[in-house]
Amino acid sequence: MTTNKLFALLLTGGALITGNAFAAAGAAVEQTFSTAEMRPSLTINKSPLKQYFSGGEVRLDPVYPASDAKTHSGAYVTFEPGARTNWHTHPAGQHIIVISGVGYTQTWQGERRTIKAGDVVWCPIGVKHWHGATEQHAMTHLVITGVDDQGKNVEWLEPVTDKQYTGK
Amino acid sequence: MTTNKLFALLLTGGALITGNAFAAAGAAVEQTFSTAEMRPSLTINKSPLKQYFSGGEVRLDPVYPASDAKTHSGAYVTFEPGARTNWHTHPAGQHIIVISGVGYTQTWQGERRTIKAGDVVWCPIGVKHWHGATEQHAMTHLVITGVDDQGKNVEWLEPVTDKQYTGK
Q: Tens-of-pLDDT digits for all 168 residues of chain B?
């Protein structure tokens, strides 16, 4: 199963309740509701996605699927201390909204930056970067991830080495 | 000043710092960062937007502007008890992510629904609806609002009457 298919499955796997029978019949004329209980968490290190993360446990909590607005999806991602993504790019960009804790992010050409609750990062299309927790703190961010014309939202690359992660 | 222009001004008014000199020169090759301190809150009832809300104080806290991803923008909106939007539609839809408190939302054809922290609502394109706090509780939601080809993200309609709001 590809990453994109797994992600799509995860985000659409929960039951959804809708405002009335029109929506149930397929016509998007009403609001669609979901509660946290309807969107199961995914422990990344117990999933096929684990190959794209390193350094510690990561949990993904879906918020809304790309199927709604077509152009983007939403998910909370929580990194335990030391955990980080691989290097990667986003074909349609990504917004990172830091909800709690302290983390790092860095582009291939840039310096490692510390990010905290309230910080927002825009990762432009195709810019190689990584993000994760610091060594001593967990970090949760909400990611709003663009989806391109082919339904693709990420291109995974090599792991972030300990040397790159620690910035030493 | 139109609502859209005000919103755009608000969301782009804060200074932004960027990862390196390339971004400062206009090439989107690096991440863009903002902190909460760089995104001033807007007290709706002291702004031209007040005509589109009623029943109490509303505060808007920008998260990210539509200029980044082109297709959507992000903002927290906090409603004091009793406060609500006018009826309105979104030409490119909107996701509502309830962060805290207890609120209501309702479509023109539907029942009033209670929403709480962890709930997510997808408001499809063109569906007439409103949202706000309950009578007894404040409510904060993060809205991810789609922007259409003409740069438009909302069509404001008539106020929600007290009878409609209370559901009686």
A: 344 444 443 443 333 444 333 333 344 579 999 999 999 999 999 999 999 999 999 999 999 998 877 799 999 999 999 999 999 999 999 999 999 999 999 999 999 999 999 999 999 999 999 999 999 999 999 999 999 999 999 999 999 999 999 988
Nearest one of B140, B145, B144, B64 to B98, comparing CA atoms? B140
For chain B, the domain total comes to: 1
Residue at A45 is within a domain: yes
A95 CA: distance to closest CA in chain B (Å): 8
Give the integer Cα–Cα distance in Å for B44 and B36: 18
Which residue of A16, A20, A30 to mutate against B (max B Cβ within 10 Å)? A30
CB B90 within 8 A of CB B145: yes
CB atoms within 10 A of CB B164: 16
The answer to whether B104 and B110 are in contact (CB under 8 A) is: no
Q: What's the token pair of residue B13?
A: 């008014």
Interface touch A142/B142, C-beta < 8 Å? yes
- Chain B contact set for A119 (CB, 8 A): 33-36
Q: CA A149, CA B17: separation in Å to the nearest integer?
A: 30
Q: Is residue B145 part of a domain?
A: yes
> Residue B151: inside a domain, yes or no?
yes
Examine residue B150 and state whether it is found in any structural domain, yes or no: yes
Q: Which domain holds residue B74?
A: 40-166
CA–CA distance, B4 with B12 (Å, rounded to integer): 12
What gap in Å lies between CA B6 and CA B13, rounded to an integer?
10
Chain A partners within 8 Å of B22 (Cβ): 109
* CATH code, domain with B154: 2.60.120.10
The verdict on a CB contact (< 8 Å) between B74 and A95 is yes
